[in-house]
Amino acid sequence: MLRNLKQFVLAPAMALAATATTLVVATAPADAAVISVRVNGTLAARNGAANWFTQTRKIKNKQKVTVTCKVTGQYLRGNARRTAQWDRTAIGDFISHAYVSGNPKLPTCVVTPPARRPRRLRPWSRRPSPRSPRARPAR
């Protein structure tokens, strides 16, 4: 009976749960917007919000791109406008808003600062303990 329960009830339930999880992860954020790019040739998507960051991919003219949020970066003059706004794509790279046709209302990207490393005392900079002979006042 236990084997039949595993075979006919638990296995399909596990498969359904795995499929539902995959579908939920694959959806775009609620604030995301699908925009069209307006360039002569191709637009370089970059790791950061400036031209000196490394190029991750090329986006063709009139190609649809999903953008999730905006950041302030290098000022550029593009085919659509002049701006310092850069849009983060759903993949995680950045494109200049100067080449985006349309003006979707995007939230500002939440930037998390890197975690601070705990300071480590150097062996020569440790303070003497209160019980050590050097810490006692001279009489």
Span from first to last CA? Answer: 87 Å
Decide which structural class fits the backbone. Answer: alpha+beta
Largest sheet: 5 strands, antiparallel
Q: What strand order characterises the main sheet?
A: 6-5-4-1-7
Shape: elongated
Are there runs of 5+ residues with pLDDT below 50, and where?
20-28
Q: Cα-atom Rg, whole angstroms?
A: 27 Å
SSE string: HEEEEEEE
Describe this structure in words.
This protein is α+β, with helices and mostly antiparallel strands and 139 residues long. It is built from 1 helix and 7 strands, in the order H-E-E-E-E-E-E-E. It has one helix spanning 2-26; strands at 33-37, 42-46, 55-60, 64-77, 82-89, 94-96, 100-101. The strands form 2 sheets. A 5-stranded antiparallel sheet has the order 6-5-4-1-7, with no helix packed on it. Strands 2-3 form a two-stranded antiparallel ribbon. Strand 2 (42-46) and strand 3 form a beta hairpin. It is elongated.
